[in-house]
Inverse folding.
């Protein structure tokens, strides 16, 4: 069994005075199609660090949902967990994948400044690399690449929709598995 760590969305439930960690159940099915099992990390940096060090993980996925604030403004619990994952991935030379918000975090950590994108929230657009149509749920994105990432795909408006860092095995995609059929989802670089 190969396991990968996954981040989760932070959700407030004010009617119950709770803060929750959540993830789309389709991630489990998608990872299963790739021969992987998920280990969901709580949005608690110290607990996430302990799990990352204690479990035999093969990599990590920074999932989508929300804006990667820690790279640009205030830092949330999830932002701090993502920074722990990035440090763990680099220290252990294990692959890390960023999807949508996760891609934003990875590229922002490398110094790129996000820009507001029009027409990317709850939309589908065609990639320039293979004409595949992907989902888009993000309000912010990037217009330019940054070393060591290599841009692999652009949306129709020229914004970055996929990139890869060959040395560390990191790659990122703005497309998400949410709302796609299994045949439309890809997790191979």
């Amino acid at each position: 069994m190969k396991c990968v760590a996954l981040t989760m969305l932070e959700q407030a439930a004010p009617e119950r005075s709770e803060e929750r960690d959540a993830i789309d159940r389709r991630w489990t099915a998608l990872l299963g199609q790739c021969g992987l099992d998920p280990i969901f990390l709580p949005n608690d940096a110290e607990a996430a660090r302990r799990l990352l060090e204690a479990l035999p993980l093969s990599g990590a996925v920074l999932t989508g949902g929300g804006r990667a604030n820690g790279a640009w403004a205030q830092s949330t619990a999830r932002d701090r967990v993502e920074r722990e994952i990035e440090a763990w991935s680099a220290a252990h030379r294990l692959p890390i994948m960023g999807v949508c918000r996760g891609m934003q975090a990875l590229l922002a950590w490398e110094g790129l400044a996000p820009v507001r994108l029009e027409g990317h929230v709850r939309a589908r657009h065609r990639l320039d690399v293979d004409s595949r149509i992907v989902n888009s749920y993000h309000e912010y994105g990037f217009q330019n690449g940054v070393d060591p990432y290599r841009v692999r795909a652009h949306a129709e408006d020229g914004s970055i929709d996929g990139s890869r860092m060959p040395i560390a095995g990191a790659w990122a995609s703005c497309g998400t598995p949410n709302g796609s059929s299994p045949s439309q989802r890809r997790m191979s670089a």
